[in-house]
Amino acid sequence: MKYMMFVCTDSEPDTDLTDDVETWVADNDARGRRLDGDALAPTSAATTIRVRDGELLVSDGPFTETKEVIVGYDILECADLDEAIEVARAHPMARLGRLELRPFASLGDGPHD
């Protein structure tokens, strides 16, 4: 089952976890559990798009003032949620932020295997 794992923190990370994250990535890539992933640019590079009453609204930065920031993502292939939780548990950002797991779903079909 495929899971999107959002890597979140309360602010832009200032702690250098590069070596720890690279080790986590290498391990999960080697096991075939990580299909893709990357860090995201800071929120100052974000653009929010909305259409209201047919009008395009474009604004700089995240949608609203928020303390939680998505700083990266990984796409995981795991047997089930229990395995995905174990993979997330070992991610270095689990100690400093939050990791949100969501199964992929086909529109109208529910969870996707």
TrEMBL record:
It comes from the Bacteria. Pfam families: YCII. Residues 15-103 form the YCII-related domain. SUPFAM superfamilies: Dimeric alpha+beta barrel. Coiled coil: none annotated. Belongs to the YciI family. PANTHER family: BLL7171 PROTEIN-RELATED (PTHR35174). This is YCII-related domain-containing protein.
